[in-house]
Design goal:
heterodimer, A: 191 residues, mainly alpha, Four Helix Bundle (Hemerythrin (Met), subunit A), 5 helices, elongated, B: 605 residues, Cytochrome C Oxidase, Chain A, two-stranded antiparallel ribbon, 17 helices, 2% strand
Chain lengths: 191, 605
């Protein structure tokens, strides 16, 4: 791919910049959804229920994964490649665990007879499913990016000294982490 | 009439090298596939957007001619329609279902596929790297993906017209319940599914493109090209991209909720309404107004996504062809910025009659009317740029002046519609149709035509035929006013939009002949567009060749590239920029290219 950047050292790399704009775009999507949530909550027939406890654990898991991805970037820059590969693997696994815990949360709601979809459902629970589900898809995107980097770290014969990829993934990973913390606070206290 | 006769340009001042050879810097081998199909060259991607947009413009325009036939001649039958549309026009008369499908698809296609992708897709791709001095976009690969997502969206949207029960027919805004219930209307089933898939792909395409445009403008400018030296085209395309990146995701979230209501039985938009033949719905507590909020939060910025690129190109073309600096450059940038901010704060003016709290409505009235301020600044600056200019009436210039005329005419009626009290009477009437077609639809089409005529020599290294262009301009301008001006009167008389047949309404029988007049003009204007298409495609292959590198004696960087630039745009180094783009008629020089260093004896700038 011929990305032809003007070599100006002070300027932020175009891909990094693009990522920041893309994150702004994702924020707008979740801002749209959470505003819709507030509008809907203030209308009639809104079901009040307690959030699944498991969301608390998933929050801890995703915070832990933010720490590991940060350490992975540090390891890469120190050229400790074994440690780097281990840490991105742990991060990816933590991401999958996070998604699993979210699904457990949905099952918990269904078990408490709070339908997420279908004719019995209330939009309070449906919103939880849609917003949390969309966030899970964004985490999945991060996991896929990590898997690609993991495979690259093994397959490529050429030594890669550019920390751009890990920095991009790290930034994105912290972003989905903070996004979830926002949603968690939003569900519990703001709305 | 030849271009030289119009331009009567004294060659010489400033920069005027011989054109360099075209290809000697292209070291990689290009196949047909990598050059014309999966191209990563921003210029080729721009042309792909343009041609796809043209195909859609013809289809969307043809649809409007078809439904105008029904409106103008409600009693007549046209046997050829049955040949064309089959069961949708049995006995030569368009069925009500087909009428609504045509109106809906016309709106969706023109707003999104032609005036969003076709307009900013084409010119952002073509002009941003050329005018800021970059070899390509920040990510050429993402740029290519952006086009192919648009192409996929086009295929899905096109296929929706051939499914058994027809395409979606509930209006381009796709309000629930018509869009949320498969049983609500024939087009609400498969047609709506395909509509949603197409629009989701379209949003992805827009986002990929927009991200790239922003990153390119902010990061890839050549040496010396500070933000305040950017041509106004780039500023406008930049704000367009920002609007798109911030508003399309909100539309997307609205669509996601719609998909859940359609397919998973949730109650975001649907409540226990009673449907004929189905009975009461099991849903509870949903609100269709919620969809309107999410839709118009995109929908209003979308208006400016369509309009801003036209504004930017018109500013540039007016200045080049008046041989004068653009009047009030910083005011132009500031008003673009103000419009971009206000675009996000006015969406509820589409919803004045939905039971919106009147106090909240009055806030939105104020914010809406505030847009008149930056809009007026822009109009005055365009007029003062023209004032006492040494005007060259090239086709691009004529369309730019036409744009200013249409923007004034259509903008003034916006002041009427922005008032919530007047809107009670005017909402959903032909007055609204007239307003937005003039100010957003036709005006932006004029911006697009201006851009095509002006930059055609850069795109294809050939000229278009001027006689045909002038014919195209005058028929289109006159026709646009003859079509939409009378609609104001119809709207003031209370004639509602979207009706199939007005001849059965006592109050609107008086408009039968006016409707016939509008339909007739619409057909003539459509035919004039075929003239443009012929001119365009003929000139791509057979047009007179461009012989000078800078045929307009313009200042901007795209005219420092070879006549047919290869991938990478400049042979050798990218030129350095020393001044803004609008030094026309300065110190007795007719024009001074942006690449000319500031001389010691030069007056301050």
């Amino acid at each position: 791919m011929s990305s032809i950047a003007n070599e100006a050292p002070k300027r932020i790399h175009p891909h990094k910049f693009t990522l920041w704009v893309a994150m702004g775009s994702i924020i707008m999507m979740f801002a749209g959804l959470t505003s819709a949530y507030i509008v809907k909550k203030n209308q009639s027939s809104w079901l009040e229920f307690d959030l699944p406890i498991v969301f608390m654990y998933s929050t801890l898991v995703i915070i832990a994964s933010s720490v590991t991805v940060h350490l992975a970037a540090k390891a890469f820059k120190a050229r400790e490649m074994g440690r780097y590969r281990l840490l991105i693997t742990v991060t990816a696994i933590l991401g999958l665990v996070f998604m699993g815990l979210q699904i457990l949360g949905f099952m918990d709601l269904e078990a408490r007879n709070i339908a997420l979809t279908g004719a019995r459902s209330n939009s309070a629970a449906s919103f939880l499913l849609v917003i949390t589900g969309l966030h899970m898809l964004h985490v999945l995107g991060g996991v896929i990016a990590l898997v690609v980097m993991f495979v690259k770290a093994y397959i490529s014969n050429v030594k890669n000294y550019s920390s751009l990829s890990i920095e991009l993934v790290g930034t994105y990973w912290h972003f989905v982490d903070i996004l979830w913390i926002y949603l968690f606070i939003f569900y519990n206290w703001i709305s | 009439m030849s271009n030289e006769a119009v331009l009567h340009a004294p060659a010489g001042a400033g920069l005027h090298h011989e054109a360099h050879g075209d290809h000697h810097h292209e070291h990689h081998h290009e196949t047909f596939i990598s050059k014309y199909v999966f191209s990563m060259d921003h210029k080729m991607i721009a042309k792909q957007f343009l041609i796809t947009g043209m195909v859609w413009a013809v289809l969307g325009g043809l649809m409007s001619v078809l439904f105008r036939l029904q409106l103008g001649y409600p009693e007549a039958t046209f046997p050829f329609l049955e040949d064309l549309l089959g069961k949708w026009a049995e006995g030569g008369k368009i069925t009500p279902e087909a009428y609504y499908a045509l109106v809906t698809t016309h709106g969706t296609v023109l707003v999104f596929f032609v005036l969003t992708a076709g307009l900013s897709g084409t010119f952002a791709n073509f002009l941003i790297p050329l005018q800021i001095g970059a070899r390509d976009m920040a990510s050429p690969f993402m740029n290519m993906l952006s086009y192919w997502f648009f192409f996929a969206a086009s295929i899905v949207m096109l296929s929706s017209m051939f499914v058994e029960f027809g395409p979606f027919s509930g209006g381009w805004t796709a309000y629930p319940p018509l869009s949320a219930l498969a049983s609500a209307s024939p087009g609400s089933g498969t047609g709506m599914d395909l509509w949603l898939i197409a629009m989701a792909l379209f949003v992805v395409s827009s986002l990929l493109g927009g991200l790239n445009y922003i990153a390119t403008v902010l990061n890839m400018r050549t040496k010396g090209m500070s933000m305040t030296r950017l041509p106004l085209t780039i500023w406008a395309l930049f704000f367009t991209a920002v609007l798109g990146v911030l508003s399309f995701p909100v539309l997307f979230s609205g669509f996601i909720l719609l998909i859940f209501d359609r397919n998973f039985g949730t109650s975001f938009y649907l409540s226990d309404i009673f449907i004929n033949g189905v009975g009461a719905l099991p849903n509870e507590g949903g609100s269709a107004i919620l969809y309107q909020h999410l839709f118009w939060f995109l929908g209003h910025p979308e208006v400016y996504i369509i309009l801003l690129p036209a504004m930017g190109m018109v500013s540039e073309i007016l200045s080049v062809n008046s041989r004068k600096p653009i009047f009030g450059y910083m005011a132009m940038v500031g008003s673009l910025f103000a419009i971009a901010i206000l675009a996000f704060l006015v969406w509820a003016h589409h919803m004045f009659v939905t039971g919106l709290n009147p106090f909240l409505g009055s806030v939105f009235v104020l914010l809406t009317l505030l847009i008149a301020v930056p809009s007026a600044i822009k109009v005055f600056n365009w007029l003062t740029t023209l004032w006492r200019g040494n005007i060259r009436f090239t086709p691009g210039m004529l369309f730019s002046i036409g744009f200013v005329s249409l923007f004034i005419s259509g903008g003034l009626t916006g002041i009427w519609l922005g008032n919530s009290a007047l809107d009670i009477h005017l909402h959903d009437t032909y007055f609204v149709i007239a307003h937005f077609h003039i100010v957003m639809g036709v005006a932006s089409m004029f911006g697009m035509f201006a851009g095509i005529y002006h930059w055609f020599p850069k795109m294809y290294g050939r000229y278009m035929n001027n006689t045909l262009s002038y014919l195209h301009f005058w028929i289109t301008l006159g026709g646009a006013y003859m079509i939409f001006w009378p609609m104001h009167y119809q709207g003031l008389a209370g004639m509602p939009r979207r009706y199939y047949d007005y001849s059965v309404w006592e109050s609107f029988k008086q408009f039968a002949e006016l409707n016939r007049f509008i339909s007739t003009v619409a057909m003539i204007v459509f035919a004039a567009q075929l003239l443009f298409l012929f001119n365009f495609f003929y000139s791509v292959f057979k047009g007179r060749k461009v012989t000078s590198q800078n045929p307009y004696n313009a200042n901007t960087l795209e005219w420092t590239t070879p006549i047919n630039p290869g991938h990478g745009n400049w042979v050798g180094e990218i030129p350095e920029v020393h001044r803004w783009a609008y030094d026309y008629g300065k110190d007795g020089k007719e024009f001074i290219s942006q690449t000319t260093p500031v001389g010691a004896d030069e007056s301050s700038h």
